[in-house]
Amino acid sequence: MERLQKVIAHAGLASRRKAEELIKEGRVKVNGTVVKELGVKVGPNDRIEVNEVPLQKEAPVYFLFYKPRGVISAVADDKNRKVVTDYFPHVEERIYPVGRLDYDTSGLLLLTNDGEFANVLMHPKHEVDKVYVAKVKGIPLRENLRKLERGVMLEDGKTAPAKTKVLSVDKRKQTAIVEITIHEGRNRQVRRMFDAIGHPVLKLKRERYGFLTLHGLSAGDARELTPHEVKQMRALALNEGKKR
C-alpha cells in the first residue's frame, strides 16, 4: 500500500506536490469515490481516476547504478548540482533512488519506480547488508574496530553491530583501507561511525548491496536488474526482516 499522491506521481502524471493539490481540489477518485485527504493509501487493485481519466500506471523498472562521487542521490537539486537521474535521460519512467549515498560517496545505488519494492528494501526491519570500503585517516587498532562491531553511540542512538575487516594499511601515509558491513541506513552513518572511533573517512565506496555488486561497471554506468534479481532482493529483504 502506498500514499495516493505518491502513486499519482510515480505514474508520471504530476509531481508529488502537484498530486497533493489535485487531491485537495477533489479532482481524484479512488474506486469511484472522490478523495480529498492526503493520508489515503491505495493498493495495486484500486482504480484511480484523475480529472475523470483512469490512471495508467507505469510498468515497474529497476536499475543498478554505479554512482560517482560528487553526485546527489535525488531526482532534483535546488543548487543545480548533478543528480543521479541525470544519468538516465533515456528512461521515460519517473525513477528515483532507493535510499541514498552521500554526495562524496561513490558506489552501488538502486533506482526504481516501484514504491513497494523501495519500501521493502528501506524499511528498518528489512534492511539488508550493505558493504562499504572506507579509506580512513590513521590505522585503527583492533579494539577500536571491535567498538564498531558491538555498536557505537551516535547522536541518533546506538548503531547495530557491524562487521569489519582491514584490507590494507599504509604506515607511511598513516591511512588504512577498511571494509565495513552494516544493515542500517542512517544519514552519513559509516562516516559518523568512523568519526566516533577517531578515524575520519577520507574516501568511501559502497561495494555491495545484498548480493548485488558493481561487477563489470565503471563510475556512471548502470544496468537493469533481471527479474530474478528483483525477486531475490525482495525475498532477501523480507527474510532478513524475520531474522532481526
UniProtKB/TrEMBL annotation:
Keywords: Isomerase, RNA-binding. Gene3D superfamilies: Alpha-L RNA-binding motif (3.30.70.1560), Pseudouridine synthase I, catalytic domain, N-terminal subdomain (3.30.70.580), RNA-binding S4 domain (3.10.290.10). Residues 2-59 form the RNA-binding S4 domain. One of its GO terms (cellular component) is cytosol. InterPro entries: PsdUridine_s_RsuA/RluB/E/F_cat, PsdUridine_synth_cat_dom_sf, PsdUridine_synth_RsuA/RluA, PsdUridine_synth_RsuA/RluB/E/F, PsdUridine_synth_RsuA/RluB_CS, RsuA_PseudoU_synthase, S4_RNA-bd, S4_RNA-bd_sf. It comes from the Bacteria. Its EC number is 5.4.99.-. GO terms for molecular function: RNA binding; rRNA pseudouridine synthase activity. GO terms for biological process: enzyme-directed rRNA pseudouridine synthesis. NCBIfam families: pseudouridine synthase. PANTHER family: PSEUDOURIDINE SYNTHASE FAMILY PROTEIN-RELATED, RNA-BINDING S4 DOMAIN-CONTAINING PROTEIN. Belongs to the pseudouridine synthase RsuA family. This is Pseudouridine synthase.
